[in-house]
Amino acid sequence: MRYSNYFIPTQKEIPADAEIISHQLMIRAGMIRKLTSGIYTYLPLGLRSIRKVENIIREEMNRAGAIEVLMPAVQPAELWQESGRWEYYGRELLRFKDRHDREACFGPTHEEVITDLVRKEIHSYKQLPINLYQIQTKFRDEIRPRFGIMRGREFIMKDAYSFDVDEAGAGRSYEAMYEAYERIFQRCGLKFRAVEADSGTIGGSYSHEFMVLAESGEDQIVNCIKCDYAANLERAEVKEADDVSPVDANAFETLDRVETPNQRTIDEVTEFLKISPEQLVKTLVYVVDEAPVAVLLRGDHELNEAKLKNALGAQSVEMASAGRVEEVTGAPTGFAGPVGLKIKIVADNALKSMQNFVTGGNEKDLHLKNVNLKRDFNAVLFGDLRTIVPGDVCPRCGGEIAFGRGIEVGHVFKLGVKYSEAMKAVFLNEQGKEAPMIMGCYGIGVGRSVAAAIEQNHDSDGIVFPIPVAPFEVTLLPLQMHNEAVVAAASKIYEDLMNMGIDALLDDRDERAGVKFKDADLLGIPVRITLGSRGLKNGEVEVKLRSESESAMLPVDNAAMAIETMVKGLYDSLK
Ligand code: ATP
Ligand code: MG
Prior knowledge:
By secondary structure, the protein is an alpha+beta fold. 27% of the residues lie in helices and 29% in strands. It folds into 3 domains: 16-71 and 110-237 and 402-455, BirA Bifunctional Protein, domain 2; 249-383, YbaK/aminoacyl-tRNA synthetase-associated domain (YbaK protein, Alpha-Beta Complex); 472-572, Rossmann fold. The longest helix is centred in the first third of the chain and has 21 residues, at 167-187. Bound molecules: adenosine-5'-triphosphate and magnesium ion (MG).
């Protein structure tokens, strides 16, 4: 491509609403432009990067046996009513009516449409397994669209859906996608981790999120500093410490009432009683599927609602209102405790090894000291209910847990029979019996992957693209556009590169060298060739990698071939 015939509207100013670097750089490098909140036009450079990621995804999906289709963006409400999600999905779903007053939505995801297709076309185990995918535009009316195309409202996603005859098959489909995703993100040059994620009540036993490691990431990732265990915060398991001494009933002290006027929070109570939060048990009253439940945690621990929900097999868990707390405990909030409570009590595992602890007294301005399990109250269930913290032990290897941040670029999910049962996607198995298909779904944010690559690869001058995601592989900067030798040598190398199938951008603008260098740095094209009259007199051109500060001189005659080798080397380094 010749720069002078192209459309790269770069800009110096940092857009006021661009909070993170990839958003700033994508605007400044002329890759995207905002139309309205969360909705962007992909300019030529942005589109080229997007297409490159799409091609990598396509190759790896095809290699893994998935088959490409393209489904409509507009979906009829009836399908969503069948799956039960028309009510459930909430305001992220963009709904509208057509001229016949029929309700529809702009698809935020395609489980309903694909399940409808498959139930109509596939009837026998002989036609299974099948995995269908598409690369398509989604719409989600995100509550907080931000970070440019990282969290847009309209965005491009690759979504795949697998259908299997049984769990074992579904497991194999999941594995195949997991491995394809590893290859895809590896080939994109991203530093990532697959983390175990919570699949909530969707049914599947597990899911993994593919997280690009970046400080600006919206997701907290929990990882072990020793082994490759990684999980998201909701999911990360807390391993029960095995070196704690069991409670000793002989050491139980007499239960005591202490007045704690107006001391409600953990800080207030521990300060007032001169104890540490580890000696206190907090009692949270939750409404679990309508019934009140008391949840007990060590004072310095936080409840993980997703774990509570899973442990109780509940549909919904919600903190009780102040009124409900008073009704259940007989005391205002801040004084709840397990002793004498008439509701179900569940406790975090950490309580198993606690003794003589402090709790609320279920009376205003009262706490209890020397409370003990079994002697003073009982819990119906112990479990892993709390959120992991840095310094906890790794549930896999016992190493130390640390926290980091990540950007979710992909998600693989076991769906089970959630959609196939609701929408009757059934097949006849080998015994001639009808059974629901076992499904999986697998998404990748295409635009978000490009943004994440920039988030991970930039410096103070601009983008430093990993070559597979770069809009061009090589840029040529002829420094004197009025010098025929310079222009001719640049054109020759450019033509040679094009013939070799290398994507090159020839900056043939009649601009000062400084402008060309600045723009080249901003755009982040991995290989830069500079042609100046002085170098050419010695038969040389300069070559420099965007990722390195040193440059080298190459003989002009064999420059194209040397560049070809260099480009290949950059790809090979990501294999
Ligand atoms: P998030 O938690 O970031 O909202 P999600 O869990 O809603 O993501 P999925 O439904 O699993 O996302 O969608 C699959 C992929 O689509 C995500 O892994 C992400 O890369 C991408 N994606 C989701 N929402 C957006 C968005 N608003 N803008 C750009 N990409 C998105
Ligand atoms: Mg989302």
